[in-house]
Amino acid sequence: MALLGSYALLLALILSAYSFFVGLLSLIEGEGSEYLGETARRAGIAVFAAVFFAAVVLVMAAFNNDFSIAYIYHHSNRDLSGPYKFAVLWSGQEGSLLFWSLLLSGYGFVLRLRYKTDPRLFAYASVVLAAVQVFFFALVTFAANPFGMLEGPMRPDGSGLNPLLQYPEMVIHPPMLYLGYVGFTVPFAFALGALIMKYPGEKWIHITRRWTMVTWGFLTCGIFLGAHWAYYVLGWGGYWGWDPVENASLMPWLVGTAFLHSVMMQEKRGMLKVWNMWLVFATFWLAILGTFLTRSGMISSVHAFAQSSIGGWFLWFLIISAVVFLFFFLMNSKHLRSEHKLESVMSRESSFLFNNVLFCALCFVVLWGTWFPKISELVQGNKVTVGAPFYNRVAIPVALLLLLLTAAGPLLAWRKTSAASLQRNFLWPAVAAVAVAILLMVTPERWGSPFGLRPWVDISSFYSLVAISLGVLVTLTIASEFYRGGRVISEKTGQGLFASMVQLTHRNTRRYGGYIVHFGVVVVIIGLAGAAFNQDKEQEMGYGDRMTIGGYTLICRSYTEEDNPNYASEWAMLDVYKNGRKIDTLTPERRFYKASQQTSTMPFIRSTLSEDLYLVFEGLNQDNGHPILKAHLNPLVMWIWMGVWIVIAGTVLCLVPNAPAMAMQRAPDRKLVEHAAPVVTGD
Amino acid sequence: MNSPSRTRRALPCAILALAVFFLCGAGDPASRFKEIGHQLMCICGCNQVLLECNHVGCPSSDGMRNELMAAVERGESDSLVQQAFVQKYGPTVLAAPTATGFDRAAWIAPFVALFVGLGLVVLVVRAWKNRPAPALADGLRPARGADLAQYRDQADKETEL
User: Fold this and answer.
1) What's the domain range around A175?
2) Average pLDDT over residues A480-502
3) Does A584 lie in the same domain as A494?
4) pTM
5) How far is A246 from chain B (nearest CA, A)?
6) Do A97 and A183 sit in the same domain of this protein?
7) CB B131 to CB A675 under 8 A?
8) Mean of pLDDT over chain A
């Protein structure tokens, strides 16, 4: 079985190489070589079949408990349940690289099937994609083969899956993340292809936009699934630790977000072509850099795969891809020049420029913070830690500037916005935001978070106040956009306001879906702002002992131990009281997984809209057997997860095709308008 | 009492009031423990801030927390506490680079990059503004002056709140 898998990978490598070299030859030869180009395209399609077969072989080996394969031995065991055996495919270094190759080939499969959209552009993109495939298949075939045999005698059982990964979200998190990482190869392939062939016009941007949005959506899901998993499983009460592996996912997300915004300017005004070319390259390159970070061992991280030699492979790929891109950019950059003029600093064009700078600055902060320990070691011979205090102090102010721009940007028109118009549309939302800030400061703390903010106590309270106020500002500017557009349609058609807003959204799903995404981001940020109010307390608790935290009283009712074939566990049962009334029973747990000999906590979380009561079974007092419990009170965390759902909904809405423009029907019994009304179209 | 004299007396009071305002809660041991505890890393390898380490069976965090509490109760200053931890556990015990020597580059570089970026954008915007207007197709003339103002007013009226 392992041999079949290895040969399938080798076949995929050969087909990728054929697709690349023959495709390249066809492009160079030009007219008359269409047959060659077609064989290259079909070889690219066949790659997917070969790697899919290899993936199926690996998954079947996991389900058949074939511990003769080293990878299966190290990441699975007999008692592992079905979904987690399936997840073995991506739970280790070699398998995850195979999974990466599978997704890359899947994207390539779809791209090559849709070539009739623009055969020449797709041919160039296919060649670029094939080059990336050659790298990954060479890697999994020669340096990180998941079908390597285990040395020594056959083992009766495997080492098992890391218990921290035995959680439903861990079945979904890596695929989402990889769909995002890998997916950015496609816009890059189109961009490089368009650059090489000096593609006339902006059609390649239109073709790429949906790919990018889908990819960005997957990466967003992947990042927040990871944060959710960290919060619900790791038991430290937090969701983001600025770990290098976490940062590796954030960097392409930031630059990809900048690209998604900036691309609008190229579509509408034919500007920012150079910016966009570099943004899409940077997004792809940072995704590969992130993979390099997690697999090379250069940066220490609790998330990282075991250190291996494949870091060198990734380093060379990063260098070669950068050199190739730079070469074609320098050769063809004149093609990217725009003749268009900027009419005013107060315009949407300017706001996109500032938007790009802020996103890139944020990305630089994360990149710099991630690499600084290594840089410090090289320069001054000793490592330093760059943790949350650094990122909080440096990244948060930039993020708040970005939030301010999020409020102002939609109010700015293309070409020029008058100061009077901006003032008119911005004034009342700004007044409301200031009013909310004052309200939060003057209200008593006993009202519960976010009330009772005291920004003078510490910097995090100040940031929280600013974040919430700006969130209100953004929400009101978004609401005003929906209201104004909906009102115009309502007046012309006689429909109700809500129905008009729905119609408005359907007529420009990208714009209004984007506003919903912005609103989702605001909700997430308000959730993050709650961290300023976090409390925690640790206490040993025997039968009947009490712990108070915030407005809650916890009483220990019982504690016990259990045993099953997979793990042994210790858990406690606590009744939760608020205002003298019992409201819940929580059962935090600690498990010891037998196969992997690892211990893991299973926190119990009581979530409400205003706060989470988060309880962790830390351990046992060895003298008297009493459990030691840690309670966290984390305000507004649920807003983070709600906000992510809104972001996803907005992203899906952006992908829905626009409704066709409808002629405005004059509503009966209304005064005839003297001049023709402006047609409400997209941005 | 003349005005400059009143101002001279009021100013120190205002500064004192502001200092009290902003430093409220700063000296409380529990607050200091929490604040300094979030500036230190647990050395068990969990890569977490000391007060957030939940590494089950962690051999380090309890001892480190006790040391920190003892230092805070002795009234030692923040910098003294941090120095003691660095001497015992090495520079990686600090959760962020210091503001001395090469470590300053960690703090300065991002802001330099941001200001350089913003400066470049300002230059680009100015350059784009000064570009000549693109040529239009024959027979087309852009709206100007009173015509343009009329269209803008109409659009504003039809879309204002």
Assistant:
1) 167-339+351-400
2) 92
3) no
4) 0.88
5) 12
6) no
7) no
8) 88
